[in-house]
What we know:
hpI Integrase, Chain A; DNA polymerase, domain 1
Amino acid sequence: MILSHARLPIPTLPRESGLASDEQLQKVNQLSEKLTKKLTNSILSYFLASRRQGLSTHTLLFYQRCLSKAIGTELTPEGINGFLSSLTCNNGKFAYYRAIRALCNWLHRQDPIEGNPINLVDSPHIAKKLLPAITEEQVQLLLNSAENLRDGCIVSLLFDSGLRLSEVCAIKSRNINWSINTLSVLVKGNREAKAAFSPNTAISLREYMVKNSHSSDSLFDMKPRGVQDMLSRLSREVGFPCNAHSFRRGFACNLHKKGLSTLSIMHLGRWSSLDMVSRYCRSITFDDCLKQYQEIDHR
Length: 299
């Protein structure tokens, strides 16, 4: 049976109201943002709220700091390139590029912009500097300059395990497995992992725990800022750079010099990729490799 047009419902226009609803205003704002293709505060808020569960607070703050500076930037290849060119932070430009890339990829998935402009923006060049890496000899100098047993334990753990500041401060006594000298840590992305430490560090830790029994849930009862301040004080005393990242680089370089594979270092240092290990091992020199080469039996 063929229906007559006369029997079909006649569409009606929505009735005008005195004030637009919040939902209508939101749609208007989204349409406006889509047409202007500019980064706005509301887009930034939506982006931050969309980040996956379990993302660390530091990562969210990284996005917020970088993208807040780019508010008003047109999300086009020309606009993004113009913003990056206006920065004077040299190697720091890559951090802003990473944040904008994450934003554009998210926007492209949401489809409020046509195409993905970041695909037409080249990554800023990064000057590959040899960043400081703590050596075994420097660790001994730091231990000699430590004000107390607690500071010495932290220095030893940083070098033995390549722990991050947040990981050191979150250690609990119940997380330590004394039978194999390991401890459980919560790493980036709320992922559980293990870290190893040497027998000498185990002796120091046991001594510290005997002398410092307290009710705090944290083994060292320190915040990341407190550990940073302690390392800065030691750095001034010994005369060379000393921070958590220099220990983490030292951890990777020391294990590499001792012959461990990159894959083993990746697992021991709780890195998620081999590329990260290579980045942290840049401080290894030709002389370091030559020494390993000469110790090989070439027969």
